[in-house]
Amino acid sequence: MAIARLDSYGVLRVSGADARSFLHAQLTVDVAHLAPDVARRAGWCAANGRLLATLLVVPFGEGFLLQLARDLAATVAARLARFVLRAKVVIADQSEACAQHGLWGDGALRELVGRGLTPPSVDLGVSVSGERVTVRLGPERYLVLGDPAFEADTDEAQWRLEDIRAGIPSITSATQDRFVPQMVNLERIGAVDFRKGCYPGQEVVARAQYRGAVKRRMYRLATGGPLEPGQGLYCDSQPGEPVGTVVNAADGEALAVLPSTAVESGETIRTAPGGEPLALLALPYA
Predict the structure, then answer these.
(1) Per the domain annotation, does 11 fall within a domain?
(2) Is there a contact between 31 and 23 (Cβ–Cβ < 8 Å)?
(3) Is 0.70 topped by the overall pTM?
(4) Is 202 helix (H, G, I), strand (E, B) or coil?
(5) 270 backbone φψ class: left, alpha, beta (φ>0; ψ -120 to 50)
(6) β-strands 63-69, 90-93 pairing
(7) Would you give the DSSP letter of residue 188?
(8) Do the Cβ atoms of 38 and 57 come closer than 8 Å?
(9) 244 in a structural domain
(10) Residue 89 DSSP class
(11) How far apart are the C-alpha atoms of 222 and 250, rounded to whole Å?
């Protein structure tokens, strides 16, 4: 079992009588009918359909906790607040106050039970114990919010590597406003609902989906060395300019948005013109 303190993630708390309807009108998923014991992955887009943030939406009390990249928390909170208008909604950046830990591997469930927490039995299930919130992200993989007592024994990069292997993107300041949701496979992980009502960028996202306009997709790569979010990637047929962009990277693996035609034709993807080739790895979803 491993425990990591998740310092690169932030938390916004959205509360108030209108919190549910407010988030439903802003995010790419149906929040109006979200059960109190179920979390959802979501995106928040600009009017042009480009992602301003990727979020884990967690019901909490009469409102919600939104997990997102720490370097976006303050700006997303301020920008979301512009849309509140007369709604009864309070948006608070609780990134400093809310401890976040990830637990995974054999024994994680036993560790949580020993600390008086109730691990959910299904993926994206949520359980609340006082101010502590547990979300199951996969078999033997849990996120705990609001419990500072855990002692980390593993670098956070290992937790990010688990996300990469699950094909879960995290938009950061380096990649903000660069991708429509389908480019980072959000609809493939249940983070886009095409049946709900309008939200910022909804028309662009729907048009891209139904007109087959998405020509770039997110793939998993073995890097062999460090890469950074926002870094450009190259292929031999177009050596003069980057054809792809790193979304997330950790411990020798990365998620990157690449032209689907380049990948399907077997082009070699490189870190620089004539540089190190990157190997394509499988994602857990088609």
Answers:
(1) yes
(2) yes
(3) yes
(4) helix
(5) beta
(6) unpaired
(7) G
(8) no
(9) no
(10) -
(11) 10
- Residue 244 has a pLDDT of 97
Ranges in the chain, pLDDT < 50: none
- For the chain, how many structural domains are there in total? 1
Residue with tokens 């870094």: 231
With respect to residue 182, please indicate whether it lies within any of the assigned structural domains: no
**Whole-number pLDDT of residue 74:** 98
Residue 63 belongs to domain with CATH number: 3.30.1360.120
| Residue 252 confidence (pLDDT) | 94
What are 211-248's pLDDT values in tens digits?
Answer: 877 999 999 999 988 999 999 999 988 888 999 999 99
Return the pLDDT at 122.
98
Q: Which domain holds residue 148?
A: 2-165
Q: What's the longest Cα–Cα distance across the chain?
A: 57
Asked whether 160 and 167 are in contact (CB, 8 A), the reply is: no
Structure tokens at 267: 């082009």
Q: Which pair of structure tokens corresponds to residue 228?
A: 């950074």
Q: Which regions of the chain does DSSP assign to beta strands (E)?
A: 2-5, 9-15, 40-45, 51-60, 63-69, 90-93, 100-104, 126-129, 132-138, 141-145, 216-222, 232-235, 244-250, 253-259, 269-270, 277-281
3-state helix, strand, coil in the chain (%, to 5): 20, 35, 45
Within-domain flag for 199: no
